[in-house]
Structure prediction request, 162 residues.
Amino acid sequence: TWGKAFGTQGACGAGSTELIEHLIQYCRPYIYTTAMVPALAEATRASLKLVQHENWRREKLQEMIQMFRAHCQELGLNLTDSLTPIQGLILGDPLISIQASKLLEDEGIYVSAIRPPTVPSGTSRLRITFSASHTEKQVLLLLEALEKIQPILAQELINDAG
Prediction:
């Protein structure tokens, strides 16, 4: 999909002449209903050029992800096994995930709570999404906020268990 690869919208099917011909012949309802507007096609083309020639965004993003994961490990936070810009902080309980999201919002940080049925029961989490436009200072602010709310969340877990 181009939304994730290029930050635009849409997708394409690429393949051999035989595959494309098969899609044209057997997927006719999609041929005319999914046409892309020219402005979006040009935006995707411009994004493709950036992806091909400007690696610094990916490098910066990977550095931030590594820094975030290392600090979370120091804090004893349970992250999903992901090296992508989407980092899941597993909290387990859906209500605690919602509370954590609200506490972070109070700190000026928007992080969504993800809970069943989107994820399996017992794996509710915060979905933290990084982009190359985030700064190191912003990542450090997030980490400070997570450290600040960590005792509150731990107390909630204790209260729920008792």
Observations:
- The mean pLDDT is 89.
